[in-house]
Amino acid sequence: GDSVITVQLTEEDKVEDDVVFYLVFTGSTVQHCTSTRKINPGSLETISPGHDCCETVKVALCASREGHPVLVVAEESFQFVQDEAYDAAQFLATCAGNQQALNFTRFLDRSRPPAADVDFLDEKVALAFRHLKLPAEWNVLGADQSLTDDIPRETLMHFAVRLGLLRLTWFLLQQPGGRGALSIRNNEGATPVSLALERGYQKLHQLLTEEEAREPDSWSTLSHTVYSGDYSVKHHCKLNIYMLTAEA
């Protein structure tokens, strides 16, 4: 989700300015409707919706004009694919509380990927995490709620902070167990907060310690989402695109 989609109109579809085009994505359990903006008489632009699963959906280009019925201009298939970011988010979600898996992720720390790669990883994995269907009982600290704060262990928060993943850290902070993870020490006695300080991640340390800390700048912060029951409306400020998502 959140990629820019360009729609090329045929000559016969280029109509007056009072015609409004929008796209309807119909999946197995969720339907999205996105507005579009005109780049020129023959091109439209919109944002792909974040979908709840990897599948091929039907997408319809519709035209609306006041006083006239809605017209379906064209239909096409659109595929939501399982990429590396989705795989990583799925893996990390299942890692919560799994010490063997979390210790395995520490090898990434030794390879120290370049800053640009870390930023790309952070943005993509955090976005994929947002669209995962996490179980209602999912917790950053894992399923074993009998463990107390004084038992040393590795957590998802340690992983995100160790790599300097600002946006993923922010996402985890908003989830059950996110704030509680900040006081958990690993086997070296480090908390996520002390790790951020030790590695000189000033923005990350600020995010973890300031009550009024704001969400890190990213593509996701260029949008605002309002939820109401089975519906949500998202506004992408940069392109002025609106997206309505409804559970079927």
TrEMBL record:
InterPro entries: Ankyrin_rpt-contain_sf (IPR036770), Rho_GEF (IPR051632)
GO cellular component: actin cytoskeleton; membrane
GO molecular function, one term: MAP-kinase scaffold activity
Gene Ontology biological process terms in this record: adrenergic receptor signaling pathway; positive regulation of canonical NF-kappaB signal transduction; regulation of Rho protein signal transduction
Listed SUPFAM superfamilies: Ankyrin repeat
Listed name of the protein: AKP13 protein
Annotated source species: Pygoscelis papua (Gentoo penguin)
Organism phylogeny: Eukaryota, Metazoa, Chordata, Craniata, Vertebrata
Gene name of the encoded protein: Akap13_1
